[in-house]
Amino acid sequence: MPTSAPADLLRPLPVPMRPWSHVALDFVTGLPPSSGNTAVLTIVDRFSKAAHFIALPQLPSALETARLLTQHVFRLHGIPRDIVSDRGPQFTSRVWREFCAELGDQVSLSSGFHPQTNGQTERANEVLEAMLRCVISSNQSTWSEQLAWVEYAYNSSTSAATGVSPFEASLGYQPPLLSISEGELAVPSVQLHMWRCWRA
After folding, report:
1. What pTM, to 2 d.p., does this model score?
2. pLDDT in tens, 24-33
3. Which ranges form a coiled coil (predicted)?
4. What are phi and psi of 65, to 5 degrees?
């Protein structure tokens, strides 16, 4: 006779029909201090696989997470219909549930038994960590300064799931990649800035 409750049926996540209607959130923590930041909030569009990486001084509260979502997703892409996250305290709090209910958003929480529901942000975090290791190999305290270029590179890369870059899937075109001029520029500060961007 079985001693455990019968397993429930898996409920697949809704399939997005347009960019930024279904997003997934997760955090990267334990990073070396960089301009006062030690963590990153990763926000992934489940349709295009595009991501935003936001440097944080520490893990935010539920209300601070709501504000970050407003600043970095709502103003650029509109209000999503579904938000996937893990069961961290930010996402299980009454504040977060009330915030999402007010927006009319569906909240999808991954569980320890089915962590694959938030697999897109887990994968984005793996890629982010690998890219940051390359960028900061010589100076670990500069990762937050390079985060915008890491995000640009991530969103410019072809996704195995879609066959196109996240930029192309969400915007309909591929922005140009940054190239560095071999010759001397007339303004040295511009050349130094471009060289730093290129190194990222």
Report:
1. 0.82
2. 999 999 999 9
3. none
4. -65, -40
